[in-house]
Amino acid sequence: MDEKNLEREIKNAINKNTDDYLEDKEEIWSHIESRLDLKEQKGNGALRINKKSKRRLRGVLISAAILVLIFSVINVTTTGQAFVERMKQYFEPEKHVVTEIEGKPEEQEVILHEKADYVIYIDEERYKMIQEGDKDLITTKEPLEERYPEVSMTISQVVDKTPEQLAQEYSHELKTSFATVKEIESVTEPVEGLLVAAIDGSEWDSRVSKIYIISNGREGSFVFNIKYFLEAAEGHGARFYHMLEEFQVVQP
């Protein structure tokens, strides 16, 4: 089911008279959850949203109007309240997240950055975003010593090329400067698209490049060019990965 049909079904389910469509509020929540592919964790009643559903929620349900409709039709259950609170988090200008860095849980405060065509949360304690021409560059807040290879994530949009076209181009380009370039891979995390990965050796300071490419929802693509070095894979590499999980395309 595409996003427009999904949104339409949810609105219809909420707006219809509950006696005609579903017998009680528990069935309403069950219906909504089934449409969103949500799963209730057994034992404590906590609502768990898988990552694919998160992207769908952000793309379809990040709308204050939807929240108003939900509250206007039903008395929210404990599980429903948790669901709505989870949805509200996507609007927050800043939030606390817990991620696994170097094998240990780490709490971070991330800040919302809103661009004309996308939004992303950034760990501003360690990183900063600067604009370089038509690209946005996320790099370390404090410059690294010269002995370290570049650590950064560049976000750019190519409006007239598909992810498949760009993946082939980047693969050929990386082969001219990296010892090992992996086969182009389809991925669903941290974003849904294609990955071109390369590494230039096995030393602590060997350069690593990961280029994620996703559709921009039209005829073009977003490109995320991530650079770090081998020893930083579980540090900077993991943090860029988690930031990218929060990326969301904004349609004009």
Structure description:
The chain is an alpha+beta fold. Among the domains are: 1-37; 125-249, 3-Layer(aba) Sandwich (Protein Transport Mog1p, Chain A), CATH 3.40.1000. It is 34% helix and 31% strand. It has helices spanning 3-15, 18-21, 25-36, 51-60, 64-73, 78-88, 163-174, 233-245, and strands at residues 39-40, 47-48, 94-101, 104-114, 118-122, 127-132, 135-140, 152-158, 180-181, 185-187, 193-199, 207-215, 221-229, 248-249. The strands form 3 sheets. Strands 6, 7, 8, 9, 10, 11, 12 and 13 form an 8-stranded antiparallel beta sheet that branches. A 4-stranded antiparallel beta sheet has the order 3-4-5-14. It has a two-stranded antiparallel sheet with strand order 1-2. The two termini are 22 Å apart.
Average pLDDT metric: 76
Return the CATH class of the domain at 125-249.
Answer: Alpha Beta
The SS-based structural class is: alpha+beta
Tell me the β content.
Answer: 25-35%
> How many angstroms does the end-to-end distance come to?
22 Å
Examine the coordinates and then state which fold CATH places here, giving the name of the CATH topology of the domain at 125-249.
Protein Transport Mog1p, Chain A
Biggest beta sheet attributes = 8 strands, antiparallel
Question: pLDDT below 50 for ≥5 consecutive residues: which ranges?
Answer: 14-25, 38-49, 59-76
* Shape estimate: globular
Can you write the helix and strand succession as a string?
A: HHHEEHHHEEEEEEHEEEEEHE
Let me know the number of strands: 14
Oligomer: single chain
Second CATH tier, the architecture of the domain at 125-249: 3-Layer(aba) Sandwich
Rounded to the nearest angstrom, the radius of gyration is 21 Å
